[in-house]
Design a protein that fits this description.
Blueprint lengths: L1 H14 L8 H9 L6 H12 L4 H22 L9 E2 L2 E2 L1 H5 L1 H18 L8 H15 L4 H10 L7 H25 L5 H28 L2 H4 L5 H4 L5 H5 L1 H20 L7 H12 L3
Antiparallel strand pairs: 1-2
Cofactor: Mg(2+)
EC number: 2.5.1.10
Pfam families: polyprenyl_synt (PF00348)
Length: about 290
């Protein structure tokens, strides 16, 4: 995994231009090359490996999904959204570069993601189209953007678990699920395997957000690399506020079990890497 991660970092570095005008490239590189868990690209690469897929297409998909994730963090941290000043242990992009340049950096990374997915050669046009569709749908109104809209509208509002689950599915889960399916699309998996990987991605995506909610109230900012207790202070509904801390922990473990069960049903020969990533999501401390 470390070897693949190193190759990913090199590829991503090559795609994000320092030469973009008026300091824009510097802001983009600050936002996306500054570390992070890299869970989404690792899911792309692990799913591709599980279906014995095309490495070049998967590496491009891994870079594209991380660009979309990074753009979303830049925009979400801005004063008009979540108004945060700390991300990945350093000042957020708008604090470091100003709001206007941060907004443009996010816009540019979103566009760059789709440019990365559509090379002139090396990836079949039909696969390019499928990867673009999966990524666009996960980032749009039925995915990340829609989830953020619900999140902003839910401040101070009581939510039941079903509504909270839908919000988190859109805001966080769908992009993680799409990461798995983008990797799977780079191979020739059968319908059974694709259905199982989709279920795995859905369970893991929700588990990630449940654990995020738990860490927000159990860890400090130095460990998280972002402002701890932010959701509680903003009176946002979370799995901890709706279910309680211990039920939220049980739910995270249940979702991890569901992810493993989906892999058991996939018929794929080697899912060890995907299993490890599911465990890593639930056992992480930041």
């Amino acid at each position: 995994m470390q070897r693949k991660l190193h190759a990913f970092e090199q590829a991503l570095d090559g795609f994000v231009p320092a030469s973009a005008p008026a300091g824009l490239g510097e802001a983009m590189r600050y936002a996306v090359l500054g570390g992070g868990k890299r869970l989404r690209p690792l899911l792309v690469l692990a799913a591709c490996e599980a279906v014995d897929g095309q490495g070049e297409a998967a590496m491009r998909a891994a870079c594209a999904v991380e660009l979309i994730h990074a753009y979303s963090l830049v925009h979400d941290d801005m004063p008009c959204m979540d108004d945060d000043v700390l991300r990945r242990g350093k000042p957020t992009t708008h604090v470091a570069y100003g709001e206007a340049k941060a907004m443009l950096a996010g816009d540019a990374m979103q566009a760059l993601a789709f440019d990365v997915l559509t090379p002139d050669e090396g990836v079949a046009p039909a696969l390019q189209a499928r990867l673009c569709r999966l990524l666009a749908r996960s980032a749009g109104y039925d995915g990340m953007a829609g989830g953020q809209a619900i999140d902003l509208a839910s401040v101070g509002q009581p939510l039941d678990e079903a509504t909270l689950r839908d919000m988190h599915r859109r805001k966080t889960g769908v992009l993680l699920q799409a990461s798995v399916m983008m990797g799977a699309s780079c191979g020739n998996a059968d319908a059974r395997a694709l259905e199982a990987l989709d279920a795995y991605g859905a369970a893991l995506g929700l588990a990630f957000q449940v654990v995020d909610d738990i860490l927000d109230v159990t860890q400090d900012s130095a460990v998280l690399g972002k402002t701890a207790g932010k959701d509680q202070d903003a009176n946002k509904p979370t799995y901890v506020s709706v279910l309680g801390l211990e039920p939220a922990r049980r739910l995270a473990l249940q979702l991890c079990d569901e992810a493993h069960a989906a892999l058991n049903a996939s018929g794929l020969a080697d899912t060890a890497w995907l299993r490890h990533l599911a465990d890593m999501v639930v056992e992480r401390h930041h």
